[in-house]
Amino acid sequence: MISAHQLTKRFGDFTAVDAIDVEVRRGEAFGFLGPNGAGKSSTMRMIGCVSPPSGGALRILGMDPATDGPAIRGRLGVVPQRDSLDEELTVRENILVYGRYFGMPRRVVNEKADELLEFAQLTERANSVVEPLSGGMKRRLTIARSLVNDPELLLLDEPTTGLDPQARHVLWDRLFRLKRSGVTLVLTTHYMDEAEQLCDRLVVMDGGRIVAEGSPRELIALHSTREVLELRFPADDHAPYAAKLTDLAQRVEVLPDRLLLYTEDGDATAAAVHDRGLAPLSVLARRSTLEDVFLHLTGRTLVD
Amino acid sequence: MSAATTTASGTRPAQPAEGRMAGRAFAFWLTDYRRVWRGTIISGFLSPLFFLVAMGFGLGALVDDGVAGGVRGLDYVQFIAPGILAAQAMQTAVGESTFPVMGAVKWHRLYDAMLATPLGIADIVLGHVAFVAMRITITSVAFAVVAVALGAIGSWWVLLAVPAAVLTGLAFTTPVFAFSVSQDNDGGFNVLFRFIVMPMFLFSGTFFPVEQLPVALELVAWATPLWHGVELCRGLVTETATLAGSLGHAGYLTLWVAGGLWLAFAGFRKRLVT
């Protein structure tokens, strides 16, 4: 569906996307993870054929975005990072107008709109003006609208950013259904739970480059340990404790309020800590998550 | 979802080339307009009507009774009616090409939504310009009807003066599109309204012949698209036009439309396709 080779995007002297290689296969859900400014959105805009690449080769649905932009976009669905709904039109009109951009006859779009409103659980609000709707509803409408042309490939740029937990779960459920019905999903996110929930495969981007690639499980196996032991000690500075424990774990990370011990067996490591006569205030053994991988790969410092 | 299942087949009608889908963008603006058209029609021709009545009949009475005895042998109201027709086209054009364009770029991201579909830059610009042309046509027709009813215009040539006014409006639409898409906030619009549109309105032959101006300013007036629009409309409805003169004015206005369109394409591309 998507094949990018040494894909690059430059804005003046700044290189937003730095020679990345990506292959997305039909029917899979593929994720771009990364902190803000990692180059995810620039990559999505190139895939969406609205931003010409500065270098490298890009094929979408077997076509070249430089020459076949309209034909490719006719088969894509795009959910942009910020909603671009016409807030003064009604929910239903937004879908109708959008369908017309694809050259769909009025009658066809009308039928399609009913179906999409149902899918997005917006049937009851069909004739409401968009402006006063909740963020979750607007997001669902944006997704419904992006499906008007029965896209083979759906691009979602941070689909659930800014939504409350209920709204996010509803959206995930809808995206699951789409995936099951054969639509290829490509999404960006900086929510690790979202990536673990939705993505078959993902890449982690940082500074315009791909720093890791694989399924969520593979990434955890490759870049983290099976479990993480979190220890909290009655002290302002946890560094001295870390020094006493380095040999008990593959890696020890010092945070302001706790220590993280990356280990294969959290309980065994906890016992070993106690054997050394140390008494943490709290002990928590948990499985490694994608978040551990992500923070390990892209660092804990803020990048703005 | 059943419909999404049918997608996997991958057979979808091919899309036309960029620039051939402007009608789809135009259809959007039409949908948008359906909510507000009543208000725009009233506000769109009330103000030129006020000008026509106040200047044409009020001030006109003094002009016609004075030493001048009208302008170029015409009643003053007949002199200014075609001028106001052209000037109104300019006002409508500039109004429709400033905030709506900035809004579609920045506030509502309507163009972004269109660009995510098969539409390209040429389609969104031409579709929106076509809508502005329709708006200018509506206000021009409304004004012409009133001017004829009041006796300010008394020639069948008004039928050609309306398209002439639309052409005048378009000579402002496309350059102002290019200007608006380059602006980050509305500060530039105030400059445009106060220092370009308003002086042009007053000094481009709408209310008095530009020969009354000092020579230097007269030369400036000749360069403005509005003066050519006013002369074109006035020549038609007062039945004083020559073919060569009219074609000259129309040609000059067309140059502005074409040059503005070229700049608008470049400006839209720079702002939206990065």
From TrEMBL, chain A:
Entry-linked PROSITE patterns: ABC_TRANSPORTER_1, ABC_TRANSPORTER_2
Membrane-protein topology: Peripheral membrane protein
Domain ABC transporter: residue ranges: 2-232
A family per Pfam: ABC_tran
Record GO terms (molecular function): ATP binding; ATP hydrolysis activity
Annotated InterPro entries: AAA+_ATPase (IPR003593), ABC_transporter-like_ATP-bd (IPR003439), ABC_transporter-like_CS (IPR017871), ABC_transporter_ATP-binding (IPR050763), P-loop_NTPase (IPR027417)
Keyword hit for Transport: yes
Statement: the UniProt record of this protein carries the keyword Metal-binding: no
Predominant location category: membrane
SMART domains xref list: AAA
Keywords tagged on the record: Antibiotic resistance, ATP-binding, Cell membrane, Membrane, Nucleotide-binding, Translocase, Transport
GO cellular component: plasma membrane
Cellular location(s): Cell membrane
BP GO terms, sorted: response to antibiotic
Family: Belongs to the ABC transporter superfamily.
PANTHER family, alphabetized: ABC TRANSPORTER ATP-BINDING PROTEIN (PTHR42711), ABC TRANSPORTER ATP-BINDING PROTEIN NATA (PTHR42711:SF5)
Name under which the protein is recorded: ABC transporter ATP-binding protein
